[in-house]
Design a protein that fits this description.
By secondary structure, this protein is α/β, with parallel strands linked by helices. 51% of the residues lie in helices and 13% in strands. The chain is globular.
């Protein structure tokens, strides 16, 4: 149709000309032209079933491609501050990131999964203060916990563990904290409280307290993620940026380029020169680096480590942060297009039709571990990846736990278990599956439901590649649901263990190929494929 004007011919005429020049192909039944200018390729029925043999002969290659050319990609995801347990909001980014890692590896990329540990900065100081105050309370000191401190029950648990380990080591001789004189200055009061804690404990004691809180929560996060079925290749400490002098070097390089200036006692980065809406502080007036300064150094080090492409998976509330990070990369002479930011929308949890509220500091949240314990890893991983990451997700606990066709996880796993039951039944009847015979007899499959299953199987490799390149794990989830639907329809309409031996072996081959693809696809999403249900 695009050629019609320059060629001065109708689209149909051009399509007919192209179709007439196509060479013969044994996999094609015919090539037809349809208005207003489409060329339709009709496959031979036998060609549709070729994929079954390919899947069975090399299951490990199923869904794999070399499209990525082993390009070195780093994916950073979750990276939640170690100030509290992971909650259900973190779970979506975790499930999405882990699925994307699997998909990209299947598409031929060399992928490193990394967790950036925010173990420096004010939020960690607030955690240390919160643990200290609960520790004092545990030792019968009358304390008043600031409203903007971390107030969850997990802080009390940490405080009790600290007291059990170190006794009265952190108990001050005279507890006289700063008073809150101005209710509108709560954050300033919190900073004064942190200073008071540091003064009372001294540098060594405070660092020990700080490390206890950070390490305890980080260990819990690591355990939760492993429980959730994911392992990171690297855990990168924010503190290491200063310890290895990377932060000072990054800011120094920006200064050498003329992109740093002083104002109000602070140092500012000219990010507006690179499209950001305003300039940003990198060193505060007290000499302490900002979170942004750490992020600049961290991203500079990502490329220094040899990654050709970098993917960050952030919560949707970090959208405004993107221009400043890309601005910093540009100022450091790095191509900002090599940094890809994927945003994950929030997930809302519903139980019995009621939305569950979450707030990290108040402690009123449902942890990821609690969610997994209630619905299981499989349901959590699948539900989190079943919708586009940039769309809001309502997580229905009741649906996730139901054993019905309305539950997509149950529906998929039941398809896999159903196939396994066919082979158990075959063995009970004294029969066996001869894969070579089954592949050779695939031409015996001619029913519409059989053809539909084979046609869907043929799209698996394409779907995996698409899901990887477009960063859309939900596309794989949708494909698996379609494959399960096609298989259930085939199973319900046709007997598999028939007397006709070649037809039986052909149908068993088709079943086996579906089993391979279902198991492989579910594994990429972090979901198990049970043999019995």
């Amino acid at each position: 149709m695009l050629l019609a004007k320059p060629c001065r011919q109708s689209p149909v005429a051009i399509a007919q000309l192209i179709a007439g020049k196509l060479g013969a192909d044994s996999s094609l039944k015919q090539v037809t032209v349809a208005p207003p200018g489409f060329i339709n390729f009709h496959l031979q029925q036998s060609a549709l079933f070729d994929v079954v043999g390919k899947i069975l002969q090399d299951p490990a290659a199923c869904g794999r491609s070399t499209r990525g050319g082993q390009q070195k990609i780093q994916i950073e995801f979750v990276s939640a501050n170690p100030t509290g347990p992971l909650h259900v909001g973190h779970g979506r980014g975790a499930a999405y990131g882990a699925a994307l890692v699997n998909l990209l590896r299947a598409a031929g990329f060399d992928v490193t999964a990394e967790y950036y540990v925010n173990d420096a900065g004010r939020q960690m100081d607030i955690l240390a203060l919160s643990v200290w105050l609960r520790y004092l309370e545990h030792l019968n000191v009358n304390i008043a916990l600031p409203d903007n401190a971390y107030r969850g029950e997990y802080v009390k648990t940490l405080a009790a563990a600290l007291a059990a380990r170190d006794g009265t080591r952190y108990l001050p001789t005279n507890y006289a904290p700063p008073a809150l004189s101005d209710p509108t200055a709560a954050e300033t009061h919190l900073d004064a409280f942190i200073d008071y804690c540091q003064q009372q404990l001294g540098d060594a004691q405070y660092r020990a307290l700080h490390a206890f809180g950070c390490d305890s929560i980080l260990n819990g996060i690591n355990e939760d993620l492993r429980y959730f079925g994911m392992v990171f290749d690297s855990w990168y400490s924010e503190r290491s940026l200063s310890e290895r002098d990377l932060l000072a070097k990054a800011v120094g390089k920006l200064a050498d380029g003329g992109f740093i200036y002083a104002k109000d006692g602070a140092q500012w980065f000219r990010s507006s020169a690179f499209g950001d809406e305003k300039d940003r502080v990198v060193i505060r007036d007290n000499g302490q680096p900002t979170y942004f300064a750490s992020d600049i150094a961290y991203h500079a080090d990502k490329f220094a480590r040899g990654f050709e492409h970098v993917i960050n998976i952030w919560g949707a509330d970090h959208h405004g942060y993107i221009p400043r990070v890309k601005a910093a990369l540009s100022a450091l002479n790095e191509d900002p297009n090599r940094l890809e930011i994927l945003l994950v929308q929030f997930a809302s949890l519903y139980r019995a039709g009621q939305k569950v509220q979450m707030s990290t500091r108040s402690g009123e949240f449902v942890t990821l571990r609690e969610l997994i314990d209630e619905v299981g890893v499989d349901a959590a991983r699948f539900f989190y990846t079943s919708r586009r990451s940039d769309q809001h997700l309502d997580f229905d606990l009741d649906l996730a736990k139901s054993q019905s066709q309305d539950n997509p996880v149950y529906y998929l796993q039941y398809a896999h278990a159903r196939i396994c039951s066919v082979f158990r039944q075959l063995a009970q009847l004294g029969g066996n599956f001869d894969q070579a015979v089954g592949i050779a007899a695939l031409h015996r499959l001619s029913e519409a439901k059989e053809i539909a299953v084979a046609a869907t199987l043929g799209r698996y490799a394409e779907t995996v590649a698409h899901a990887a390149m477009q960063r859309e794990p939900h596309a794989l989830a949708n494909f698996l649901r379609e494959l399960a639907t096609d298989y259930h329809a085939f199973y319900n309409q046709h007997k598999i263990i028939v007397d006709d031996e070649p037809l039986r072996q052909a149908r068993l081959a088709l079943c086996s190929a579906v089993r391979v693809v279902l198991e492989d696809g579910l594994k990429m999403l972090g979901v198990s494929a049970p043999r019995e249900m």
